[in-house]
């Protein structure tokens, strides 16, 4: 019986997209730049093959690399009547597809040996590291884990790791022979465990092996699935390719889509060579190139073309100049700031204005090279009560090292042998550095990506302390801890309505109306370890991957794009070091931009809100949220505060949410101090937006006015 034929609207495609969709059954490769509609093309091709009776819906397996992307594909297929339910097209990640297949085929292949998926590889790697004589700190174990994952994804066995690591310029956290020993130890520990333990890469390995070694399994599988589609094919690893080959067997009904110039996961073992060699492997493949960019304005597209136009090497040779299809928009903006704090203040102010002018917060993103750069943005958005979500990394204050650091500072605060002078002013900075040393704040930046990230977070805390002390001489340790607590609280829980803060890696494939690319300094993007250390030569391949990251960042923007960098960056030892803007920006900044006259004039910083008591600018989240300086008077009515907290507890329970989701302690304190009489007064308090007023405004105003009435009738 024929499948129900879904409506297929070929007019929604341009001629090249339509050519890829209409190509007859067999190998098809779409090599296309960012925003050219690759996913649209894939979903239409699937529909077309089904409509033409070439394949049944449930014989199609579509794979991509993240659960989010697979979900997006299922959504698009569902709107075309080809949803992911049983009997429909299967759209999954490689891992999810392999997990299903392995569960099904395991009894035929291995019999009744039980297996289970590892919950966490961490303790096993940690034990293997200790057995190898290493002091297994958290960051070392994480870095070892990355190396093991890279090796497995690249089909490199433990004994071959040392040689392969040299060829691929791996930034190994310890001697490569030691890494190999830990890798071997990890593999043995999984096999000798009670029943077999499998990690995600083992799922793929076992799936491929089952199909390669058991003809009955291969026959059954190949009878079931006939047509394969892969999105983001430039980021396929050798291990995933092996699974794909096992799925295909001798067949060639494969459609791949990718953009080699967006390859940004090489460090995990991904390689664009399968995409670039596709027509060599399948000489009769239909190859289609797409150049029309439907996502971004011509201004953004022109900048993207310039960024990638400077690329060198084989991958760059495959680039296509994009042609913008959208109406004209604003020119991309370039800006230089004194330091990361000033940058975050200015970006937050711009975001506030965009939102006020009608851009939804969910259509705005701030993207940076490393997760450690998110802190000032979290702080400034929090202080302005702009909701945000941190993607592809925890929020700054949720990070393990930051929690450890805060607890080390609390312990220091509890000591009774520290004189008051040691707790404030410039001594506070020394104190903080000393307290963070045992947590991992070394004088030199450590080796290994995870260790670097952790170290940068600790350095960010020192920087914050310096910033606060420079504005407030007698800022002491207790006040610092209160400031940190307020900042941690100010982060709104994950919400789909918020501004996205994400690393460039996590932003792949996504799009927003407004994008801020921040921290574009040399040494951050490109990241400094590709620039050659200690007389090592520049890692050219690494440098090109960093350039592609900028290209991915630029092409996320539909309309507004802002690129910024800072003149200074905190370095080891806590001093500011002058830094220069990213070398990738050379030649891109128009002469008319004020940022092209580097550092001649002081960068314009957004005005800070003023203290309602002394009218000086407010410094720090705690002060901003209360609307007064830490030292200015503003005692809250304790009974009112208590009443508000009681109400909050009831609300939170009814909603089954945490207390701070309703209002944070600092916001309640601000209410109890400022005694708002109406919605407008409520809205003037940081942390209270239109949505909160709609949900809770009436309740809060009623509590305040009833407390005021009680005070009038019954003055204390
Ligand atoms: P990336 O490389 O960033 O993953 P992509 O090539 O996958 O990008 P899509 O996300 O599929 O691009 O498409 C980008 C945007 O352009 C989407 O909003 C999509 O709906 C739109 N689009 C694609 N093709 C067309 C078309 N022919 N007409 C109008 N809009 C289109
Ligand atoms: Mg895409």
Automatic annotation (TrEMBL):
Pfam families: HRDC, UvrD-helicase, UvrD_C. InterPro entries: DExx_box_DNA_helicase_dom_sf (IPR013986), DNA_helicase_UvrD-like_C (IPR014017), DNA_helicase_UvrD/REP (IPR000212), HRDC-like_sf (IPR010997), HRDC_dom (IPR002121), HRDC_dom_sf (IPR044876), P-loop_NTPase (IPR027417), UvrD-like_ATP-bd (IPR014016). Gene3D superfamilies: 1.10.10.160, HRDC domain, P-loop containing nucleotide triphosphate hydrolases, PCRA, domain 4. It is an enzyme of class 5 (isomerase). Keywords: ATP-binding, DNA damage, DNA repair, Helicase, Hydrolase, Isomerase, Nucleotide-binding. GO terms for biological process: recombinational repair. Residues 298-559 form the UvrD-like helicase C-terminal domain. GO terms for molecular function: 3'-5' DNA helicase activity; ATP binding; ATP hydrolysis activity; DNA binding. It comes from the Bacteria. ATP binds at residues 32-39. GO terms for cellular component: cytosol; DNA helicase complex. PROSITE patterns: HRDC, UVRD_HELICASE_ATP_BIND, UVRD_HELICASE_CTER. Residues 11-297 form the UvrD-like helicase ATP-binding domain. Its EC number is 5.6.2.4. It catalyses: ATP + H2O = ADP + phosphate + H(+); Couples ATP hydrolysis with the unwinding of duplex DNA by translocating in the 3'-5' direction. Residues 634-714 form the HRDC domain. Belongs to the helicase family. UvrD subfamily. This is DNA 3'-5' helicase.
